[in-house]
Fold:
Amino acid sequence: MGDRDAMREVLFRHSDSRPCRLLWEAIDDSSGTPALDVRDYLEVLRVTGGAVCLVAPDDEADLYVRWIDTGGSYVFVAFWPPWGVVDAGTATRSEIETRLDDRDGIEPVHFEETPFANDGPAADLSGWL
Structure:
């Protein structure tokens, strides 16, 4: 689940959100923690303003999903190392739910650990969006 301390700090700031509390417990490896579903994960992305992102397998690529407050939508990018971005776009909540539904291996990651961060390969998607 990536950088545990950075993730916990973000989740702590949003501990009034049930999905954020559930993710906190999952990161903490507490026993009896209910599993998060796609809707919970997407709510965590929205509540944290994009500080928490998701990564999921997408065939041979990794699919990263982020919430963008300014646009009020989700942004996704399929990243296939070493070639880079192979697909990207914006999506509504229902569209991204459909895209992620029934995927195994969805993991939350801190924004700084994604290709969206600091001059990463997905930091500027203007050619895709």
